[in-house]
């Protein structure tokens, strides 16, 4: 793709920190209506393409039109690289006046990768109001690997985000991010179309890196998330590690003098300065 259609480094840094990106009304109302008809007709219920290139899926369907929109395709390629693989899709229908038990969970509970990740794409073909039980997300939870829904008892986490949106909104989610459906107290069914994709290449500099050296990136990666509490420094280190992996930065921070995300073996002593690892102090100044 043309790099102007890809995400920039600042946006990728926000994804690495929060574990998701949200794009409102990126799909037209006309395509949303077509997609709803396709979903309700049952034509999207087949699961016989696992492992196939995503570019070969739904070539003659409305869903194919949606995922081949330039903006949508650019976001996918920016986070996974070119030619990702189709893993599966699922249609979530939350019926009207339906109570849902607490089900906070993580989809990637069997994922043994340290840094690589799959992408969950959540498409909402209809408006989601506050009482329809939109998807609940826990920003910054994607570094906390757990066993599926062992966290389902957790409620009211500081900073949790429950989706309220217009039709055509899409969420792009790190496969390890904690999330759940909620009770639908409205008189209307809620539809969600989910697709999971896997990278076919190493996820290194797959976006538009023209701004990769901008000063705006460090504050994003070192920003704390309230619910992390006393563990925020560890989470910031995890965030920086993922950033360094995705930027292909395997050099010693002691040599590059970026002053953060330092490997302990690189210097004789490391101290914490605010929430970043600093190297500009020697043993004599500690």
Walk me through what this model shows.
The protein has helices spanning 9-18, 29-41, 62-67, 70-80, 217-221, 232-246, 253-256, and strands at residues 20-23, 85-94, 119-124, 136-137, 161-162, 169-174, 179-180, 190-198, 271-273, 276-278. The chain has 286 residues and is an alpha+beta fold. The protein folds into 2 domains: 3-198, Jelly Rolls (Sandwich); 217-285, no CATH class. The strands form 3 sheets. It has a 5-stranded antiparallel β-sheet with strand order 1-6-3-8-2. Strands 5-4-7 form a 3-stranded antiparallel β-sheet, with no helix packed on it.
Produce the secondary structure layout.
Elements: H1 9-18, E1 20-23, H2 29-41, H3 62-67, H4 70-80, E2 85-94, E3 119-124, E4 136-137, E5 161-162, E6 169-174, E7 179-180, E8 190-198, H5 217-221, H6 232-246, H7 253-256, E9 271-273, E10 276-278
Antiparallel strand pairs: 1-6, 2-8, 3-6, 3-8, 4-5, 4-7, 9-10
């Amino acid at each position: 793709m043309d790099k102007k259609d890809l995400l920039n480094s600042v946006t990728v840094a926000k994804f690495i920190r929060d574990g998701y990106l949200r794009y409102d009304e990126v799909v037209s109302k006309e395509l949303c209506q077509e997609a709803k008809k396709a979903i309700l007709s049952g034509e999207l219920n087949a699961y016989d393409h696992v492992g196939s290139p995503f570019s070969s899926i739904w070539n003659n369907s409305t869903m194919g039109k949606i995922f081949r929109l330039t903006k949508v395709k650019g976001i996918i390629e920016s986070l996974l690289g070119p030619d990702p693989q189709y893993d599966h899709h699922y249609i979530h229908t939350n019926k009207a006046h339906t109570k849902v038990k607490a089900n906070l969970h993580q989809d990637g509970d069997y994922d043994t990768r340290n840094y690589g990740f799959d992408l969950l794409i959540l498409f909402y073909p209809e408006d989601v109001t506050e009482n329809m039980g939109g998807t609940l997300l826990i920003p910054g939870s994607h570094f906390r690997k757990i066993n599926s829904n062992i966290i389902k008892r957790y409620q009211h986490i500081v900073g949790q985000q429950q989706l309220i949106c217009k039709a055509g909104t899409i969420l792009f989610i790190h496969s390890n991010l904690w999330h759940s459906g909620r009770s639908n107290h409205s008189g209307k069914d809620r539809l969600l179309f989910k697709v999971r994709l896997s990278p076919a290449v190493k996820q290194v500099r797959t976006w538009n890196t023209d701004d990769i050296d901008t000063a705006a990136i460090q504050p994003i990666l070192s920003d704390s998330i309230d619910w992390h509490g006393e563990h925020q420094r560890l989470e910031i280190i995890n965030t920086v590690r993922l950033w360094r992996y995705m930027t292909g930065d395997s050099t010693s921070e002691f040599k590059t003098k970026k002053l953060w995300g330092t490997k302990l073996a690189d210097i004789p002593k490391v101290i914490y300065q605010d929430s970043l690892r600093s190297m500009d102090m020697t043993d004599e100044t500690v």
